[in-house]
Write a structure and sequence with these properties.
Length: about 325
């Protein structure tokens, strides 16, 4: 690595090169040379994952992880083909009236043999393999179909929030894809809310912002998710055509006891309101959190205090129950 790092002088310019190195050793029992190459290759990718410009040794657990990854990828493909996923829906509650004003669609996978698999586990695999595209299309279609069904039941004035994968967003024809699903279920663009994260801006920023403006021109709502956890929120905030900011649950959890979290949350809400943006607090679970957020003029609550993510059948009953209650302007809450 030291030898590779020496500068190469080309046409009077010093070029510096670094290397990610994977190393393996034969135990004397490996008969196929290609097996050694594969092991070194696994170790090399481990070096890349650890920030590049370093070396890593092959270990047996690497092979196990690769096998688990391949197995999960195969299971994902079967689940996509058989549509074995589910969407659960978590209501978003207006802080002033207590009414349900939005719903977030959340992807769930209950594996027949392995049980519940967290999206934090299978979504990165789907993104690496490209399987996230058909998966995202299914989520969009299913969520919009549910919104259409709610409308047919007389439940209106509610937006459906769908998380958007940066991989899907960066593919061509994304705007056309959104328009097509809206047309399919005869929904107005304002009924759909796309939740994006700052990772969407990591590659080709100008193109990403242009796509967001096209979506905004359609009338689709855009929310910036996990706000406060990224590195570029403030630098891009004034350029993004967004409607909402969602404060990450990591700030909400201790706002009643941690003055740092409280100050950050109040600052986000104040800044957002000055930019004419609405604010959603995620992970609301306690009365003390609600009291603080109401005092800070947060607009919308989402969290277990009101409801856990639920199947579509339970969602209709939940919304109907909330609508039937006589709520005061100060918000009467009941834990579900």
């Amino acid at each position: 690595m030291a030898s590779i790092a020496r500068p190469y002088c080309i046409q009077g310019i010093d070029l510096h090169v670094s290397a990610s190195v994977g190393i393996t050793l034969s135990d004397g029992h490996i008969e196929q040379p290609m097996q050694l190459i594969q092991q070194a290759d696994m170790a090399m990718y481990k070096a890349k994952q650890k920030g590049r410009n370093n070396f890593q040794w092959y270990t047996s657990d690497l092979n196990q992880r690769v096998c688990e990854h391949a197995s999960l990828r195969n299971d994902l493909q079967k689940a996509i083909e058989t549509q074995s996923f589910q969407l659960h829906y978590q209501p978003q509650i207006d802080a002033r009236t207590g009414r349900v004003v939005g719903i977030e669609a959340l992807l769930r996978w209950n594996h027949l043999e392995k049980g519940f698999i967290s999206p934090a586990v299978f979504v990165p695999v789907a993104e690496d393999s490209g399987q996230i595209i058909p998966l995202s299309l299914w989520v969009l279609d299913t969520a919009c179909a549910q919104l259409r069904q709610l409308g047919e039941q007389g439940i209106t004035g509610i937006s459906m929030a769908v998380n958007i994968s940066p991989i899907h967003f960066q593919r061509g024809q994304f705007v056309e894809c959104i328009q097509a699903v809206l047309n399919r279920y005869e929904l107005s663009a304002g009924q759909l809310e796309l939740e994006i994260t700052e990772s969407l801006l990591l590659h080709n920023v100008e193109q990403a912002i242009d796509t967001l403006h096209q979506l905004k021109a359609l009338g689709v709502r855009i929310a910036l998710d996990d706000f406060g956890t990224g590195y570029s929120s403030l630098s891009y905030l004034k350029r993004l055509p967004i409607d909402k900011i969602k404060i990450d649950r990591s700030f909400i959890r201790d706002i009643a006891t941690d003055h740092h979290d409280a100050a950050i949350t109040q600052g986000i809400i104040s800044m957002a309101h000055h930019l004419s943006l609405r604010v959603v607090a995620e992970g609301v679970e306690t009365t003390s959190q609600i009291d603080f957020l109401k005092g800070s003029r947060c607009d919308i609550f989402q969290g277990y205090y009101f409801a856990k993510p639920m199947p579509s059948a339970d969602l209709e009953a939940f919304i109907s129950l909330r609508e039937s209650r006589s709520l005061t302007p100060g918000l009467v809450c009941s834990q579900v």
